[in-house]
Design a protein that fits this description.
The protein is an alpha/beta fold. It is built from five helices and five strands; from the N terminus they run βαβαβαβαβα.
């Protein structure tokens, strides 16, 4: 599984169930990243089985049985994904939600609405950290 496309951009998997947010995130990130998008836990793990990603952007409040935090917790148990950086994106500003996400293994937590430069900067720093490791 290759972690970069022919264009040399790092690969990102955006896990977001809101279609408008998917479009927005894809639009702002496609210049710097090779973007894949999924909208559920099932498609998240399906995409992971087919590709390697340099970074994952996870909505904390996915519709479905489990939250993004629970999915991150399971993801980080797998040796192949233990070091894959995960950025949580959420409308929740409550410190407990943020603590839960970080305890589950998230590397960063950003709140919606997120500033484009803050999102790109955070993702780029994490990808570069992964490349150095």
């Amino acid at each position: 599984m290759d972690s970069t496309q022919k264009n040399g951009k790092p690969k990102i998997l955006i896990t977001e169930d809101d279609l408008e947010n998917q479009k927005f995130l894809n639009l702002i990130l496609k210049r710097n990243f090779e973007v894949d998008v999924c909208d559920s836990e099932a498609t998240f793990f399906e995409k992971l089985s087919e590709n390697h990603y340099n970074v994952i952007l996870m909505d904390v409040s996915l519709n479905g049985e489990r939250s993004g935090v629970e999915i991150i917790r399971d993801l980080k148990k797998h040796p192949a994904y233990k070091s894959t950086p995960v950025v949580c994106l959420s409308a929740h500003v409550f410190s407990q939600v943020q603590r839960d996400a970080m305890d589950a293994g998230a590397d960063a937590y950003l709140t919606k609405p997120v500033h484009n430069y803050e999102l790109i900067d955070t993702l780029t720093k994490l990808v570069n950290r992964e490349a150095v490791s």
